[in-house]
Design a protein that fits this description.
The structure holds two protein chains of two kinds. By secondary structure, chain A is α+β, with helices and mostly antiparallel strands. Chain A is about 40% helix and about 25% strand. Chain A is built from 16 helices and 28 strands. In chain A, the strands form seven sheets. In chain A, strands 1, 2, 3, 4, 11 and 12 form a six-stranded mixed β-sheet that branches. In chain A, strands 18-13-14-15-19 form a five-stranded mixed β-sheet, sandwiched between helices. In chain A, strand 11, helix 4 and strand 12 form a beta-alpha-beta unit. The radius of gyration of chain A is 26 Å and the shape is globular. Chain A starts with 20 loop residues before the first strand and ends with a helix. In chain B, about 70% of the residues lie in helices and about 0% in strands. Chain B has seven helices and no strands. The radius of gyration of chain B is 20 Å and the shape is globular. The chains are: A alpha+beta, B mainly alpha. At the A-B interface, helix 8, strand 19, helix 12, helix 15 and helix 16 of A face helix 2, helix 3 and helix 7 of B.
Chain lengths: ~625, ~180
């Protein structure tokens, strides 16, 4: 990691400094990294000129291998080679049992909510495996761009729930990446696509990847991408096509003895059969290890996968309904994800929307490219960029009420960020605590929804039953991540909340992983903390300096300006030192001393936005 | 900070009333989000990011409320000082309630009909027509909102709530029918 260059006061050229940013598509089968270079977004290749990095991580005797090499040794060492790990992100031990025999791995007994896979290099979590993939992509980007990344946009399936999103963000954090934003894959595809076509109107993005399916309906208007509805299945993808082919082979070849190696081999055979059938009417199959040869024709293949494709069509139908539009109103249907290469998928999707779907952009790369464009904008490299994304939450968020029923707090397809409050009361005299169970899903019963977190409200002041009024605010931020706050309304006591994520890693677990991933544990952790604080200080100094250059003179009087300048200088000096805690305090105190200025700025920008409209327009009664 | 004391109409630069120009609020919504959305504050201070988040949340809430005819009416009632809690308000108009019972019964029989999809679609159209009739009569109630007019509006809102719920249930029935057909 390159050390910071801290500019002397007055020398900071914050407003026009180019920040290095990248977009990462962390896929089930393959992953990619892309960046905007000389104004053009492009995916970045490795030394062998390969753009796709197979999302496979092998834990070998000599070290950790990621990518094609790992994929090639999977059959020989299935237990220590992790593939399709995305399907396990944010999943609990119980969920994995449902995936069952599909997973060849051995799991370690753990009291954590997150499963641990046993490898010869110790137990690993899906988050750690994903972090290994991210590190390779990070390195690739930093070599290509010639410097440390300022931040990244990581894409996730739109239909990912809170636990899956959080796990993805944790993986990026573990890899040492600064995540600007988690971006929904179909929205990323829409950006990449929108740049080419920029046609205003309503578009459908059909994204069938290796392990996930998303459908998004969005309205594009003068650079604003407004997601109207999204739907999908975070456990449905091309992998499932492979499984069906593998099962078909098992039945045809009458295979009864199965081991992890053969299972791997069958899956790889199935995948190449599927790929071959996109071009040809029939594909030959040779499973020499069990002495069976045969062939699969496209018609039979279509029959095998039709039920899965129909599931995606049902989701399309629901998304249209949620968006309040009909198939005829859709301008374009864009196909994203490697699995949309399957001709039957194109055929049925085309049939449903009543038009030929667009397949002219490489479905493997389009998500990463969109992410790169967004990363570049978020980094501040394109201050005049018109693009703005308004995304939605894919799943309803609710709480458990009496009788195991769900009360919805934030319905699906609500634009984010969003906050909704709910009032609770006590049912016993003097009750001082209360348990709240947060779930995500569309079903009426808690048991059919996904448990997100349980927390307790404590410190409720003693009152008679029903007198306390506890206001719990559920907030979903622009990454689609949930946070919860609570306050007792009568006496304004903040109730403390301890959120226990049902399927997430605790902060301590992440810290432990970080420590164990570093050789000289203590020193490295300290160094990293210092670096983090220095980067944060730099960011704040830069942001404030840029703001002052822009409107400091208009919005501040001399006294106020002096106050802020002094605080700014103080932090600048602190950030040269090596006391992480002092820098952290310095950042806080600087932020405090310019609270009023920040508020003034925001109000002034809102005022400017509205001032663009003619005053008479406001006064005229709307019709 | 973003002036949260402004009501939604003021925030969107519109006069208070039931009739609104959908295109115009959509445009205002985009203009506001362009300057306040958290994506614009990635490199800003934490405080600024928090404000952006709050502001963006408020603008989203305002937009959702203004563009939805039922939520807009509920909001207007509250703005005019009517203590309206959607969860507890219910109409006492027995004629209307009887009609609701009949409609519900009709809905439950739709899956058994010869062409259930057509029946469901027809049913939803009827409910929408009833709903829209209430919408179009609502504007006048908020033009001169005295106590009497507000109570008239309140009663309409109660009925709209019923119809909205019924429409949602019909949508669920239709969705199920579609899934069975596929």
């Amino acid at each position: 990691m390159a050390l910071l260059q801290i500019a002397e006061p007055g020398q900071t050229e914050a407003p026009h400094q180019h920040r290095l940013a990248a977009g990462i598509d962390l896929g089930t089968t393959n992953s990619l990294v892309a960046a905007v270079r000389s104004g053009q977004p492009q995916t970045l290749a490795d030394k062998q000129e390969e753009h796709l990095l197979p999302s496979v991580v092998a834990y070998t005797e000599s070290g950790i291998i990621v990518g094609e090499e790992a994929r090639q040794q999977q059959i020989a060492d299935p237990l220590n080679t992790m593939s399709s790990i995305k399907r396990m992100m944010g999943r609990g031990v119980e969920d994995l049992r449902l995936l069952g025999d599909e997973l060849p791995y051995r799991f370690a007994a753990t009291d954590s909510a997150v499963p641990r896979i046993q490898t010869r290099r110790g137990n690993v979590t899906p988050v750690e495996v994903s972090a290994e993939i991210l590190k390779v992509l990070q390195q690739r980007a930093e070599e290509a761009l010639g410097g440390a990344l300022n931040g990244v946009v990581v894409t996730v399936p739109a239909y990912f729930d809170d636990a899956q999103r959080q796990a993805t963000k944790d993986a990026a954090g573990l890899a040492g990446l600064n995540v600007f934003r988690l971006l929904n894959e179909p929205t990323a595809a829409a950006i990449a696509y929108g740049l080419d076509k920029s046609t205003d109107g309503i578009h459908a993005i059909y994204d069938l990847g290796g392990g996930t399916f998303d459908i998004s309906i969005l309205r594009l208007n003068k650079g604003v991408f407004e997601v109207m509805a999204t739907g999908g299945d975070s456990a449905l993808g091309g992998d499932d096509f492979d499984h069906l082919i593998a099962e078909w082979i098992i039945a045809q070849a009458d295979i009864s003895e199965m081991d992890a190696g053969l299972q791997c081999q069958l899956m790889q055979t199935a995948r190449s059969v599927k790929e071959s059938l996109t071009q040809h009417e029939r594909a030959g199959i040779d499973v020499s290890s069990v002495g069976w040869q045969g062939e699969l024709d496209r018609h039979t293949f279509n029959q095998l996968v039709d039920p899965l494709i129909r599931k995606t069509i049902i989701a399309c139908r629901r998304a249209l309904r949620d968006a309040g539009v009909t198939a005829e109103e859709i301008e374009d249907v864009v196909m994203v994800g490697g699995s949309t290469r399957v001709p039957r998928v194109r055929e049925l999707v085309g049939e449903f929307f009543g038009r030929e779907p667009l397949v002219d952009i490489d479905p493997d790369r389009v998500v990463a490219i969109g992410a790169a464009v967004q990363a570049d904008i978020l980094a501040g490299n394109k201050p005049e960029a018109e693009i703005l994304l308004l995304d939605v939450t894919p799943l309803s968020l609710g709480i458990e009420t009496m009788g195991g029923l769900v009360e919805t707090i934030i319905p699906r397809n609500t634009t984010i960020p969003v906050a909704r409050a709910q009032e609770f009361t006590t049912f016993k005299d003097g009750q001082s605590a209360m348990a709240v169970h947060v779930v995500q899903g569309e079903r009426d019963l808690v048991a059919d929804c996904r448990s997100l977190a349980r927390f307790e409200l404590r410190g409720i002041p003693p009152m008679v039953a029903g007198a306390a009024r506890i206001r719990v605010t559920f907030q979903v931020d622009a990454d689609g991540l949930l946070s919860v706050e609570a306050e007792e309304q009568m006496q304004h006591v903040s109730a403390s909340i301890e959120v226990k994520p049902s399927y997430g890693l605790s902060d301590k677990e992440i810290a432990d992983m970080l420590r164990s991933s570093m050789e000289h544990a203590e020193d490295d952790v300290k160094f990293r903390q210092l670096r983090e604080q220095q980067v944060e200080a730099e960011r704040v100094i830069e942001a404030l300096t840029a703001a002052l250059v822009k409107d400091g003179d208009q919005l501040l009087n001399d006294d106020e300006r002096q106050l802020i300048d002094a605080a700014l200088q103080e932090l600048q000096q602190l950030s040269h030192g090596d006391d992480a805690a002092a820098i952290e305090d310095g950042v806080k105190s600087l932020e405090q001393s310019c609270d009023f200025y920040v508020e003034r700025r925001m109000n002034s920008s809102i005022h400017d936005a509205m001032a663009g409209h003619n005053i008479h327009e406001f006064d005229t009664p709307e019709k | 900070m973003l002036d949260l004391s402004k009501n939604y109409f003021e925030l969107f630069g519109m006069s208070i009333g039931y009739v609104i120009d959908n295109q115009k609020i959509r445009q205002r919504y985009r203009d506001l989000q362009r300057v306040v959305h958290p994506d614009r504050y990635i490199n800003a201070t934490e405080h600024e990011q928090r404000l952006a988040m709050q502001g963006s949340v408020y603008i989203n809430e305002a937009f959702e409320t203004l563009k939805d005819p039922l939520r807009r009416a509920q909001y207007l009632l509250r703005l005019h000082g009517v203590d309206f809690d959607p969860d507890t308000e219910t109409t006492t108009d027995t004629g209307f309630l009887m009609e609701q019972l009949e409609l519900r019964e009709e809905l439950s029989e739709i899956p058994g009909q010869t062409d259930p999809m057509a029946a469901a679609s027809l049913f939803m159209d009827r409910v929408s027509t009833m709903f829209n009739r209430l919408i179009s009569s609502m504007a006048i109630d908020f033009e001169m909102p005295d106590e009497k007019q507000l109570q008239v509006a309140r009663e309409k809102v109660r009925k709209m709530q019923f119809l909205k719920k019924l429409h949602t249930e019909a949508e669920i029935v239709e969705a199920r029918l579609e899934e069975e057909m596929l």
